[in-house]
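Hmm, what's this shape?
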Amino acid sequence: MEITVKQSNHLRVTAVFMMLCLHLFNTNYKGLFDSFIFIKQQPLVFYISRFCDACVPIFAFVSGYGLYYKYEKDAGSFAKGNFKRLKKLYLNLWIVILIFPVLVGWLLHHPGMPGSFSKLFLNLTAINVSYSFIWWYFTTYVLVVISAPLLFYWTQKYNEWLVLLISFVIYLVAFYFRVYKTDIFTNQLLHWFHFQGARYGLIQFQFLLGAVALKNKWNHRFGVVFESLKYPTLVAVILIILLFVFRAFVANFIVSPFTALAFILLWNQISLGEFMTKFLDFFAPHTTNIWLCHSFFYVTFFKDFIFGARFPLLIFILLLFCSLVASYIINLFYNRLQTYIS
């Protein structure tokens, strides 16, 4: 069985939770939060957050998987459907910008919020997402989706393994320029192309992994193996724990697409149960909003309030709660406006 829409939604929710953990705890804990469990002078939650950097590859994989399914179903209308999807995504972004940088920023007299008209325009178009450093993925995602028809055309016309190999080579080059050669241009325009090009090179590989996974039915083949096991859920959980241990000792995030792929295949073999299924279903409509707005709580406006909870689990729950409340407010506007752009 291939990955269902429900499973894709559950993976997105899981990736959002991982994103919050990564952003909150993959940092110097001193002065921010308290911890009781340490490994090599680092709190345990730091190593958990390191594993959680698989969040973006999970997002990219699921997007590539789902969009390739739509491409195979109707390649002729694929570009038009992508345009509609991007319009709705931009609507989400605009509402978040109007609520947080514009309204809250103005009310709290926060420096640079909303800033000049040119700054507002560049953020509304996602050309330069300076309001939130975590929005870099928004611009990269837009670029990948725009190029998706060409990427999928190559995947169908040529041997998909050759396409994936070329994509992986691009990934390695992009990783080098993303990590080791970050400031080779002083010119702002050239720096922007360098910045976006490196990130596009990273995400396109993770995106194509999803497409190739669907084309070759990786999830189905992996599931067949697990069906022969006596305790498939237990085995999957143990292997995910081993993935966490591996990632704890391997700090370089170059392995993230592969740990994400392994996590996705293993996660889909777990029997979640009724409670966990309903829990993930509840958060599914809020994933995009939580991604777009959570940095305004833990970094921009209310950092002291969020980290005032002191303990990692309480900090995480508080940030998730605040982001969820904000998502309901965002959806009040989104649900009324999205009909005009569909």
